[in-house]
Amino acid sequence: MRGLSTALAVGLIAGAARQGLAEPTAAASEAPPSFRREVVAVLSRAGCNQGTCHGNRNGKGGFKLSLRGEDPDADYLALTRDVGGRRLCFVDPDQSLVLRKPSGEVAHEGGTRFARGSREHQILRDWIARGAPRDLPAAPTVRTLEVTPLEAEVIEPDHEVMLRATARLSDGRAVDVTGLCVFEGADSGATVSPDGVVHRQAFGESVVLVRYLRDQVPIRVDFVRHGAREAWKAPSVCGATPSNAIDDFVLAKLRRLGVRSAERASDSVLLRRLHLDLLGTLPASEEARSFASDPRPMKIERLVDRLLRRPEFSERWALRWSDLLRNEERTLDAKGSQTFFDWIRRSFEESKPLDVFAREVITGRGSTYSSPPANYYRAARDPTTRAESAAQVFLGVRLQCARCHSHPFDRWTQDDYYGWSGYFAGIEYKVLENRRRDRNDGHEFVGEQVVWFAPEGKVKDPRTDRPAPLRLLGTGQRDEAPESARLERLAAWVTSPSNPFFARAQANRIWASLLGRGIVEPMDDFRATNPPSHPELLDALAKELVASGYDVRSLVRRIVLSRTYQLAAALPDGEPGENAPNDVRDAYFAHASIRRLTAEELLDAYTHVTGASAPLGGFPAGMRAGQLPGVGAARALGRPLSPSEQFLMTFGKPQRLLACECERSDGTTLAQAFQLLSGSYLDELLTRPENRLAALIGSGRGDADIIEDLFWTALSRAPTPAEAASAARVLGSAEGPEARRRALEDIVWGILNSKELLFRT
C-alpha cells in the first residue's frame, strides 16, 4: 500500500472484502494494462490531456493532467489522489467518473470522448478494476514508433489507405498500438479516422501525423487522379535557362502526382520579378525597354549577374536581417540602429560568408556604436529571449513551448530549453548614457552601451531552482565547454557544416525569399511534424550553400536561374482545377506565387512611378523606404507618425518586436484599400508640383508617347492596344494644361491601383 493515497487504499480493501479470497479468474491472471503505455495513451487519444482540456496549465474542473502525457508520474498522482473517491471507484469501477464523464453518462464539458465498451473504455475499466497499479520500475518502455506505410500512393478510384502503428519495446517485443494512437491530418487534402484510415479530400500530397505518447511520425500520402500521370507534360523550355538539379527535384514530384506546372513567364514579368526579389525596386523604363528589345541569348543570366552586383541587393538583405535581428530605434536608438543596419549591409556587400556573419552576431560584444553586432543583444535583453531568438533565426527551431513543458509538436524538453538558454546567461550591459525621453519606459535607451560577458552568469531551471547545465540542441548531452568561451563554443557549433540545422534553415530562408514560401513552411519552424515538401531538394540546397562557402549570392543565382523560379503564375489552359487545391499547388512550386508587394516595395514603387520622393521621418530626401535602417523612429523621438511611416505601417512593415518572419504582414486589409482608393497620401504624391507628371506635361511629347512611357515605368511593358486607346481618350478629352494634368493624374492613379502593380507575379 506504500505510495498510494488513503482513498485508493480504502478502495482496494473494500474491493478485496467484496471479492473474498476466491481464486483469480483467467482475465484477472492476465497482466493489467500498463499505466504509461496504455492508460496515458487512452487519455491522449481521447483528448483529455490537450491544452484545451485537462492538459491546460491550470487544468479543468479541478482536474489537471500533464500536457499530452509528458509527465506520467504526475498524471498517476492526479488520477489516484482523489479525496472523495469518485474519480476512481474500486468497489464498482463502472461508477468511476473517469469512465462515466468521457463516455457521456455524466454531464461533461468536454463532451463524449469514447463509447462505453470501446477499447479505450475497456482499458481504463480494467486498470481501475485491478486497483489502478503503477508500472513497475522494470516495466518495458517504448523505444520507437513504427508506422506503415510511411509513404503511400492512392490512385483513383481508390480513395483511402489504412495505417498501422507498432511500438518497439525495450524488451524486444513489437506491440500493435494502432488503436492507441492519435491520428491528425496536417493539411486540408485528407482526413483520417480514429482507426487510422486516411480518406482523400483533394488530389495531391497530404501529410498525416501519427502520435503515440511522446513519439510522432509524419506520413505522406499521394492521391493521384486517374490518368493524370499519363497526361502529364513538362513545361516548355522555350527561352528558359537549361534545367538544373532544382528543376529535377520539383518536376519529379509534379510528375509523380500528375500535377501540371505553369509555363515559363514572359520576359517582362521576369524582369520585374527579378528586380523586386533581388533589389526590392522596379526596373527603370529605359532598362525595361532595353531588356525587351535584346535579341541575344542568355539575357536572363546577364541580367541576374548585373542585379547581384548592385548595391540594392545588399540593402535588400540588410532590411530582411534587420527584421530578424530586431533592429528598432526605441531600444537601439537612432545611431545604434543605423550602425547595425550599415554593418549588415556591408556584410552582404562584401559577400561575407553567412556562417561568419552568424558567428559575429552570436559573439557580438563591446560598444553598441563601435561594435555593431553587439546591438543584437541590446534588443534581446534576457537569456531566454536570446535563446528563443537565436534558435529560431539561425537554426529554424521554435523552442518557445518548451519553456513551460515538453514541446507538444517537437522533441524539445525543458532540459533542452534551459540548457540552451544557459549559453546566453552572463551577457551584461554597461550603460554609458541614457538620454531617453520617456522616463516611464524602461525599455527605451538613447545613448551608447557596452555589452560584455560575465562567465559566472547562469540560467536557473525553475523545476529545480538550480543552474541548468549547458546543452546544445539535439545532442542530448551536457556541454562541458569552458564558461569563458561559452559564446564562441556556441557560435562554432551553430555554424558547423556538421550541424543539421544551420545550413538547411538558411537555405530554406533564401528559397522562401525568392519563391514566396519555404520548402519547410513556415520557413523557421523545422520539426518532424512539419516535414519539408521536397526533402531531397532542401538537402541539395543546404549542401550547395556549404560547398560555396555560405555565399548567399551564389545560391540566389542558382535558384533564380532555375525553370522553377521562372514559371508563370497562371496555370495551363484547360488544366482541371480539381487536380489539386491552390495551396497544395503552391507547396509543389507548380507556378509562381502571387503576393502583394511589401510595404517598402510598394512605397518605393509609388515614388518611382510618380517621381515624387517620400519624406521618411527626418531621413535625407530621396532615400528609399528599402534603405530605412530601423523602425519606431517616431516613437523614439516622441513625435507623431509621418504620412510615409503611416503608409508603411498600414501595409505591414513590422515593429521588429519578434525575431520571426511572421511579424511582417503581406496580407490585404480594408485599411489598405481605403489608403489606396481615397487616402490623401497617394493623392499628394500625384499632385505634387515637381513630380514626373509635371515633367511629362511640360515635355511637349505626344499623348501616345506619354502613355507608353508611364506603362514602361510602372509595369515594365508597353500598353496593350485597349489600354493605350482608353488612356488616350481620357488624356485627349482634356483641354488646357490644368485639365491635362488632372487627366494624367487619373490615368496614373488607375495604374497605381492596378493588380499588376500591387502584386508580384
What attributes does this structure have?
761 residues; alpha+beta; Immunoglobulin-like; 6 domains; globular
Record the SSE blueprint:
Elements: H1 6-19, H2 26-29, H3 35-45, H4 72-80, H5 97-100, H6 119-129, E1 142-148, E2 151-155, E3 160-162, E4 164-169, E5 174-176, E6 182-185, E7 190-192, E8 197-200, E9 204-212, E10 215-224, H7 228-231, H8 245-257, H9 267-279, H10 285-293, H11 299-309, H12 311-324, H13 329-349, H14 354-362, E11 366-367, H15 375-379, H16 383-395, H17 414-421, E12 427-431, E13 449-453, E14 460-461, E15 466-467, H18 486-494, H19 502-515, H20 535-547, H21 552-560, H22 582-588, E16 595-596, H23 599-610, H24 633-637, H25 643-650, H26 670-678, H27 680-687, H28 692-697, H29 703-715, H30 721-732, H31 737-752, H32 755-758, E17 759-760
Helix pairs in contact: 3-6, 8-20, 9-11, 10-29, 12-13, 14-18, 16-17, 19-20, 19-21, 27-31, 29-30, 30-31
Unreliable residue stretches: 1-29, 576-581
Structural class: alpha+beta
Tally of discrete structural domains: 6
C-alpha geometry: globular
Distance between the termini: 71 Å
What is the strand content? 5-15%
Report the helical percentage: 40-55%
The helix tally amounts to: 32
